[in-house]
Specification:
About 30% of the residues lie in helices and about 20% in strands. It is globular, with a radius of gyration of 13 Å. The N and C termini lie far apart (about 30 Å). It is an alpha/beta fold and about 130 residues long. The chain is built from 5 helices and 6 strands. A 6-stranded mixed sheet has the order 2-5-1-6-3-4.
């Protein structure tokens, strides 16, 4: 059994299959899940696991070249906005929440957290390690 890194077998397998340019949506429990992308649902109960825990865990595993969040996060969820700005100070872009929902349909992987605060969602664009 693995003793470090991602232990969830579905998430570990899905991240291993990602390539350059693939999208990964990390979303709160309320984000509509579009048909099509692979979904790994980690939600256990409200707030567990948190958006921050899942984001930071995935950032240990992935190379990310860009991130997109809903512009509404800045006003409605300042904690999530600050977290995203700290992790992506130069590569974070904002779109409307409706546009983020549209873009999420093109993601290769969606990871649903137990987060119960609004707009705790980010679409990551995978990079390469070389």
């Amino acid at each position: 059994m693995k003793k470090s890194g991602i232990l969830n077998r579905h998430l570990a397998g899905a991240t291993a299959e990602l390539g350059h340019g693939d999208g990964v949506l990390i979303c709160d429990a309320g984000m509509p899940i579009p048909p099509g992308p692979r979904v790994v649902d980690l939600a256990f109960r409200a707030g567990v696991p948190s958006f921050q825990e899942v984001l930071e865990g995935l950032l240990e595993e992935l190379v990310v070249e860009g991130a997109t969040a809903a512009q509404e996060v800045r006003e409605s969820n300042p904690e999530a906005a600050a977290l995203l700005t700290a992790h992506f100070p130069t590569t974070l872009t904002h779109v409307t929440h409706e546009n983020l929902k549209t873009l999420s349909a093109g993601a290769r992987l969606i990871v649903r957290t137990g987060e119960a605060r609004p707009y705790a969602n980010v679409l990551l664009r995978c990079g390469v390690f070389f």
